Amino acid sequence: MVSTGERTGTPAEEATDPRREEERGEAAPDGPGTGGAGGGATGTDAPERSTTADTGAGDAARTVRHRVLTGAVVLLTIALVAAGAGLFVAGRQLRDTPATANLALTDTPATNGVVGDVSNALGKIFTYGPQDTAATKESAKQLLGGQALQQYAALFGQVEKQAGDQKLTLTTHVVRAGVTRLSGTSAHLLVFLDQVYERRGGAATTAAAQLSVTAELRGGHWKIVDIAAR
């Protein structure tokens, strides 16, 4: 029987026919192991794109770190400048406060000098016996001044009479004296005293006293100018 179409060869003929082999070769896709253009491009392009992406990411990270470090340095500098300015202002305020003019807080030798002179004066003017009131009165004239001397002179007449009539002896000891304020020529003190009263033939009596004293520097010595009981 004669066919009008193209004759189809046998499998053996197709295997040996060069045209069949050429058609199969053109139709077959390039595999991963072939050396064709498609396979070669796929093997080389992927690493190049990965390297480029990594380089860009690294540059971006370094830029971010640089900006962060720069910002931190700027902030630290501002903080240090602000702290220095604050300390300078605080130091000026401390130097300008009235507390710094109080030598009782800063000048120990001057403070000790005031305490010594005032304690000695109080011990003398508030210590007397029946036969030595004149010596006490003379000490008061030398150690007191201003209002303190006037007050003492007005009251000592009564003290002198009482001491003579009752044979009274008074001994005064300064227990503690503190300078609350001290300038170059003026001082304010708080003084605690123990006073022992003794009448002839009687038992001694001890009493505590607390005085507020103002003293002024005159002739190189501190003289009491005001005394007030507290």
Describe the structure.
By secondary structure, the chain is of the alpha+beta class. 55% of the residues lie in helices and 23% in strands. The chain is built from six helices and four strands; from the N terminus they run ααααααββββ. It has a four-stranded antiparallel sheet with strand order 1-2-3-4. α5 (133-143) packs antiparallel against α6. The longest helix is centred in the N-terminal third of the chain and has 60 residues, at 37-96. 11% of the residues are buried. Residues 1-8, 10-16 and 31-44 have low confidence and may be disordered.
What is the mean predicted local confidence, pLDDT? 76
Distance between the termini: 153 Å
What's the helix count? 6
Shape: rod-shaped
* Strands in their spatial order, largest beta sheet: 1-2-3-4
- Along the chain, the helix and strand elements come as HHHHHHEEEE
Radius of gyration: 56 Å
Could you name the ranges where pLDDT drops below 50 across 5 or more consecutive residues? 1-8, 10-16, 31-44
How much of the sequence lies in strands comes to 15-25%
The total of beta strands comes to 4
The biggest beta sheet reads: 4 strands, antiparallel
Give the class from helix and strand content and strand pairing. Answer: alpha+beta
Proportion of residues in helical segments: 40-55%
